[in-house]
Amino acid sequence: MDSLQRLLDIMRRLRDPQHGCPWDVAQDFASIAPYTVEEAYEVADAIERQDMEDLRGELGDLLLQVVFHAQMASERGLFDFAEVAAEIADKMVRRHPHVFGDAEFTSAGEQRAAWEDQKAAERAARSAAAGALDGVSPNLPALTWATKTGKRAARVGFDWPDAGGAQAKVAEELDELSSACAAGARAEQEEELGDLLLAITSLARHLRIDPEQALRRANRKFERRFRAVEARVRALDKDWNDCTLAELEALWDAVKRTES
């Protein structure tokens, strides 16, 4: 039996109201959505760790989410897995005219521009009053949301001409945050911190850096160094409360030197 068809049949059986799994039968789109997001992150994590065996399993978990949603939709008469697959296949052909048609692009940048133009045309076809930011989900991670909205705004000319303007904006927002901290107004501090983070995503976009990925890597680096400091504290037969901040900073610097 085809492995994909087997998976579809398994999900259909799990959702059977009489003979299926009570937990699976009780689920709906909203209850499954968090698992879908979680599985996507676990795929990204396996890729970042370059664990291909784990990636195979995580991709299966993510595929299960697609199958689960498609089965629930099929039960409501909305669409089924075949329609999901057909729609994405049509979209890929439509967005790659240089592969499946006669279009020719001279650079990757030209291809990306054509891709974005096609996406904009699709959004406009869905709504006569389509806006530049339509279709960007606010449920994305905040850094990704900011990056996508920044790219959309840039496409209609609402952007700095180079990274210098974005860098100046970061400095401006940092000054405004410093003023808010000095004033002690909590709500203003939160607002200015948000503005600073938004400005940083704009700078990242101009530098062609994915801020979500950059922060994930920074988190991993911090975790690695923190665990190394923790091991050194234990080696001294101490715990955190026995060490001064100066001692901890010295251990941190020592760990950093081992990585250089």
Number of beta-strand segments? 0
* Unreliable sequence segments: none
Number of helices: 12
Mean pLDDT: 91
Largest sheet: none
Report the radius of gyration as a whole number of Å.
24 Å
Beta content comes to: under 5%
Give the SSE string. HHHHHHHHHHHH
Explain this structure to me?
The structure is a single chain. With about 260 residues, the chain is mostly helical. It has helices at about 5-15, 20-25, 30-50, 50-75, 80-95, 95-100, 110-125, 140-155, 165-185, 185-205, 210-235, 245-260. The longest helix is centred in the C-terminal third of the chain and has 25 residues, at about 210-235. The radius of gyration is 24 Å and the shape is globular. The termini are far apart.
In short:
With about 260 residues, the protein is mainly alpha-helical. The chain has helices at about 5-15, 20-25, 30-50, 50-75, 80-95, 95-100, 110-125, 140-155, 165-185, 185-205, 210-235, 245-260.
Strand-helix topology:
Layout lengths: L2 H12 L7 H5 L2 H20 L3 H24 L5 H15 L1 H4 L7 H19 L15 H14 L7 H21 L2 H21 L4 H25 L9 H15 L1
Helix pairs in contact: 1-4, 3-4, 8-10, 9-10, 11-12
Distinctive features:
260 residues; 0% strand; 75% helix; mainly alpha
